[in-house]
Amino acid sequence: MLLLSWLQNLAANLWRSLMNASRTETTFRESVDLMFNRAVALMDLAPGLEDKIRVCNSTYTVRFGVKMRGSIHTFTGYRSVHSEHLEPCKGGIRYSLSVNQDEAEALAALMTYKCALVETPFGGSKGGLRIDPREYDVDEMERITRRFAYELAKRDLIHPSQNVPAPDMGTGEREMAWIADQYARMNTTDINARACVTGKPPHAGGIQGRVEATGRGIQYALQEFFRHPEDVAEARLSGTLDGKRVVVQGLGNVGFHAAKFLSEEDGAIVVAVIEHDGALVCDDGLDIEAVGSWIKRHGGVTGYADAIHVKDGSKVLEKECDILIPAALEGVINLSNADRINAAMIIEAANGPVTAGADEILRSKSVPIIPDMYANAGGVTVSYFEWVKNLSHIRFGRMQRRQEEARHMLIVNELERLSDHLGDDWSLRGDFKEKYLRGAGELELVRSGLDDTMRGAYQAMRETWRSRNDVTDLRTAAYIVAIERVASSYEAKGL
Length: 495
Ligand code: NAD
Known about the structure:
This protein is α/β, with parallel strands linked by helices and 495 residues long. Among the domains are: 58-204, Leucine Dehydrogenase, chain A, domain 1 (Rossmann fold); 213-378, Rossmann fold (3-Layer(aba) Sandwich). 47% of the residues lie in helices and 15% in strands. The strands form 2 sheets. Strands 10-9-8-7-11-12-13 form a 7-stranded mixed beta sheet. Strands 1, 2, 3, 4, 5 and 6 form a 6-stranded mixed beta sheet that branches. The longest helix has 26 residues, at 442-467. The termini are far apart. Nicotinamide-adenine-dinucleotide is lined by residues 167-170, 214, 249-255, 274-276, 313, 327-329, 349-351, 376, 379.
């Protein structure tokens, strides 16, 4: 009996491997289009609207030179605008040697759907510069970034009401501050100049909580998923995040914050971290703060003492775990390894980490995937708050905070007066007074707005997933919700 079931399993695996080998991997943009097509096949869109939504409106390619180290260095950059159904368009700027037009267009399309899903009033855009930032010093990076920003700004591809970039892989607050300053120098009378880019440092027009936002959003997304026992059961899991074994790929901005919050605040155990130079494995759980600062000092995980180092990091994607969080690159779970993924569920912190072919295999294995379009939307959500803050020229909470505290003080004073009458048995507990009196500052408001957005978007996706028999996965549900919203917007314009 045992031998028979072993043989059946072997035959099934062989058959699956043969089928996978006969498939060809799609490019990133083709993967996004295939996932889009899967969703629109279940929708009833007006004739021609499907095509209008799918196509990328434009991609601008720029080649520019910067004089450095005694010669002219030529760089290639892109800015894709996928959809202008709402403006400005929003989407990050990536610095990486792998940047290309296909990638920029795929990421711009994802931005359109992401913004629609989390109800930020933007079209989708994305850009990138083909560069390895590690090869240049700070001064050189500033000159390259300013020149790239100049090329984009003079074509309104950086503009507070047309196109608003943000950080992505290889860029952060520093680059966004340079871009904002470059735009302001070119538009000296634009009072809204600061709103031309988000992800700036707080002292340069940024907002509290933007750096952590995407990782924080991953935490809120998982918390919401675990509030629905029926959904958790789809992953053959139960209970809460407490004690769940997590594998994270990429301990950069997104991966680091997600891993830190999940382990420090929700009791999850990060059993492996995969980086560009190998993986760290520790079944008792890694100290994310310590690993993060090691990476900052040494540029990778090699040499970190309190864990086993595995040279071929990609193999660790196949480690058995409850939650796999790919938070680095696209296409890392593909036809070559999807069959061997041993996670109960996946949350896509990176954009496009699962190819269309791998998605199909994982669906056939009933591995729930919380899709990128939703999972990593924390960044654009808080970018939206920053953009609103820049346009309103006032920090969130500035008008209300002390008034809120004064009203709370009235209640606390009254409770204390009553407790004086009622005697020692009736008194306010522990730190209640301190916590209750504290009015919400910008960071609290940003986190509250982000949490609300992540909960609301999950519930919209879930409603479609659970209420329709023909929708069997969260990704298709996410696309349907997003496409419906984009379609309504085009229809309202009379298109
Ligand atoms: P980042 O540059 O801060 O971090 C990327 C990390 O991945 C780095 O630590 C890098 O060393 C690591 N890495 C590179 N190659 C790797 C490999 N082969 N194997 C394992 N690790 C590798 O970038 P980020 O901002 O954290 O972005 C990561 C992903 O999240 C990207 O797909 C990005 O588009 C997406 N994203 C980012 C944001 C944001 O706010 N930064 C928002 C939404 C989505």
